[in-house]
Amino acid sequence: MMSFDTVRPDTIRPGHVFTDDRGQVAQLHGCAPVRVGDRWYAWGEDKSNGSFFTAVGCYSSPDLAQWRFEGNSLEVQNHPELGADRIIERPKALQRPDGAWVLLLHIESHDYADARVGYAVADNPVGPYTYIGSERPLGNISRDIGVYQEHGTGYLLSEDRENGLHIYRLRDDYLGVESVVATLLQQARPEIGYESPALVKHGGLYYLFGSDLTGWSTNDNKMSTATSLEGPWSDWADIAPPGTATYDSQVSAVVPLGGDRFLYVGDRWQEKDLQNSPAVWLPMRLRDGAVEMSWVEEWSATDQ
After folding, report:
1. Which helix (H) or strand (E) holds 72?
2. Separation between Cα atoms, residue 193 and residue 166, nearest integer Å
3. pTM as predicted
4. Are 207 and 197 in contact (CB under 8 A)?
5. H or E segment at 248?
6. Could you tell me which CATH class the domain 34-292 is placed in?
7. Where do the domains of the chain lie?
8. pLDDT at 7
9. What gap in Å lies between CA 106 and CA 93, rounded to an integer?
């Protein structure tokens, strides 16, 4: 990608935080941008209170680089699952065929014993969202989550370290899980799956991404492909040069930009300063089951 003699306003600088229209660090942690009309929307973990729940902030952008704070989609409230002593992670949004928006969340207690997925609904992308409740999908624990949508059907990707990485089909209202589509395990450690899952489709292939279970520390993230969500899924492969720990980041989402161009959305978690954790957003290409992604100092998602 090109390097700019003067910094363009649409420049993305991997390894740096985004600043919003208020001059504040955009709390885009754990997000997955979604195109809505001529703007991108993203819902991120507000880490101004460290690990504990403050809010899910909503931001919008014309170019994935300049972010405007739209407001909090979900805030601390009296609901026992949304108190200031709770942990709310991985906000992901889907628009239902009826036009309503559903926010899916990793719902946790302070000791990570709850391991549930929560659901909230609104009539527009920003909200505020009304919290509906949570579940352990089909009785399974659910920690890091991702979402996917195809032909009006919604899917939940959920890390269940007791049984593997599940792909679930959501109910028609997206407010609960209907069935398991597939469960994937690691090759090296077949007793567990990968966390922080993301899923896209390109050229007739599904690409499923995930991160190993190493806490706040980064690792070499992986990818598997299949022609059907049910599988069979290929062996897991690195998505960045081995030993780089995915450029010191953890995948949060992979976002289509058009053609074979995708956006890798990664987080570089700073355990002692979570609110200032840098965003590692990189250009990615998917071709014939292979990933092309390399480090660039700056780039623009609007360039071809």
Report:
1. strand 68-75
2. 8
3. 0.96
4. no
5. helix 245-248
6. mainly beta
7. 34-292
8. 73
9. 12
What average pLDDT does range 28-33 have in this prediction?
A: 98
Residue 15 backbone zone (phi > 0: left; psi -120 to 50: alpha; other: beta): left
**Residue 179 to residue 200: CA distance in whole angstroms:** 20
Distance CA 110, CA 53 (A): 10
pLDDT averaged over every residue in the chain:
96
Q: How far apart are CA 197 and CA 235, in angstroms?
A: 16
Give buried/exposed letters for 251-272 (b at 16+ CB in 10 A, else e).
Answer: bbbbbebeeebbbbbbbbbeee
Phi, psi of 108 (to 5 degrees): -140, 155
- Each residue's pLDDT tens digit, 45-81: 999 999 999 999 999 999 999 999 999 999 999 999 9
Contact (CB, 8 A) for 27 and 45: yes
Tell me the one-letter amino acid at 271. Answer: E
CA–CA distance from 209 to each of 35, 134, 165, 239 (Å)? 20, 25, 11, 8
Predicted confidence at residue 162, as pLDDT, reads: 86
CA dist 176 → 42, 102, 118, 180, 286 (Å) = 22, 11, 9, 12, 31
The residue among 144, 232, 143, 236 whose CA lies nearest residue 188 is 236
Q: How far is residue 6's CA from residue 192's CA, in Å, rounded to a whole number?
A: 47
Inter-CA distances, 228 with 24, 50, 120, 206, 231, Å: 42, 39, 29, 7, 5
What ranges make up the beta strands (E) of 171-278? 177-184, 195-202, 205-211, 222-226, 237-238, 250-258, 261-267
Contact call for residues 16 and 7 (beta carbons, < 8 A): no
Q: Which residues contact 17 (CB under 8 A, 6 or more apart)?
A: 25, 26, 276, 277, 278, 279
pLDDT confidence of residue 47: 98
Coil, helix or strand at residue 165: strand
CA distance 27 to 224: 29
